[in-house]
Each structure stands twice: as structure tokens, then as C-alpha cells.
Amino acid sequence: MSETILQLKDASIYQGESLVLSNVNVEINKGEFVYLIGKTGTGKSSFMKTLYGDLPLTEGEGFIVDYNLKTLKEKDIPFLRRKLGVVFQDSKLLIDRTVNENLLFVLKATGWKDKEKMNARIEEVLTKVGMKTKGFKFPHELSGGEQQRIAIARALLNNPELILADEPTGNLDPQTSVEVMEVLQDINKNGNTILMATHDYALLLKYPSKTLKCDENQVYEVVQRKG
């Protein structure tokens, strides 16, 4: 029996007053790697924002890592986000702190207390993304790809049940994009579920996986032809 991590039933997604996606029916199971594709402006970001509580779900049903998006209260959002790892197009690292301090900041903010455990966890996630020796550097001393690896490490800190990656390779050159994808693939092989919004079709060809497409206010699964 596969475990459902995310399920939307007949959901409509709004950005303010305007309807972005209607009648969305999506299910993602534990351990899957799922792409979300679609042209700019077709609702990928609104879809993602609804999942991490930035936009309210007002129509239909939505369940994500045991949270009901329809009845999600403001005070629950930080707890929901602890179960999700969110990676943005821009790494959103704090520029005045080292990599280690960036990660420490998140652990403290999410309730970790034990200094030894915190340091051990930081070393663990940095090792996972191949950045073990970069903890003492500041973001500006890292390349774009390295910054994104740190952003992925940060997303992994609280052992999330689902990682939402919103255009994580959007600002990167093709070679670096592949490197970041390799990291995400490894994490997925270790059992983390990933939903990744992207417009980089080269990555889909190189790493084929279940694909959802936003188009004309709808989200549907794309059946990939075996070539």
C-alpha cells in the first residue's frame, strides 16, 4: 500500500480573486519524484504556494503530509513547513552569515536546542549535498550551483516528508543544473519525495519521471512516450 503524501481533489487555486487552476486532482505518493511543468503564467508557482500555505485553498479538498489545506490555520503553517522542505529559484540564503550559521538559524527557528545534535545534523545534510567543507564560507563566496546545494541542504534539515522545489535550476547554466539535479536524484533515491516545478525540458528528457502539466487552468499528468 503506497502512502499518499499529497492529494488534491477537485481543488481550485486562486491568486487573490482570480482563478488560476480549476478542478485539480493530483496524488503524490511517498518516494515519488514528480515534475510540475508549464509555461510561465500557467499557475506553477500558485500551485506550489498553495501547498506550503502561502495561498489559501478555498475550494475542493487538499491534504499534504497529514495537514488539511482547507482548514489550515495561520498558526499551523510553520509546523506544516517543517514537514516540507522548500527550495526556491533564488537560494534565499542570509548573506551576512556563513553556510553553517544559515543552517543553524533554521534549526533554532524550528525548535532544536541541543548544540551537538544541531552541529551533527548540519554536517550530515552538507555531506548529502557534497558541500561538507564549505560550512565556513559566506554565500557570496559560493557559485550559484553551490548556493542551491546549500538551499537543498537547508530544506533537508528537518527530515521533510516532501520537498517542494520551485524552479531550483531556473537561474543556473545547463551544466550546473545537471549537478543540482544529481543531488535531488540522490536525495530521492534515499526515500525523500520531491515535487519539482521546472521549465527546463532538457532535465525531463535526461531524468524522466512522473510529470504534471499546468495548461489552460488545468493540471494533468503527461504520459511520457518510451522512445
Describe the overall structure:
The model has no long low-confidence stretch (mean pLDDT 93). The protein has a 6-stranded mixed sheet, sandwiched between helices. The chain has a 4-stranded antiparallel sheet with strand order 2-1-4-5, with helices on one face. It is α/β, with parallel strands linked by helices. The protein has a domain at 4-93 and 161-222: 3-Layer(aba) Sandwich (Rossmann fold). It has helices spanning 44-51, 77-83, 99-109, 115-128, 144-156, 174-189, 201-206, and strands spanning 4-15, 18-29, 33-37, 59-64, 67-68, 84-87, 162-166, 193-197, 210-215, 218-222.
Question: What are the main properties of this structure?
Answer:
227 residues, single chain, six-stranded mixed beta sheet, Rossmann fold, four-stranded antiparallel beta sheet, alpha/beta, cell division, 7 helices, ABC_transporter-like_ATP-bd
Offer a quick outline of the entry.
The protein is of the alpha/beta class and 227 residues long. The protein has seven helices and ten strands. A six-stranded mixed beta sheet has the order 6-7-8-3-9-10, with helices on both faces. Strands 2-1-4-5 form a four-stranded antiparallel beta sheet, covered by helices on one side.
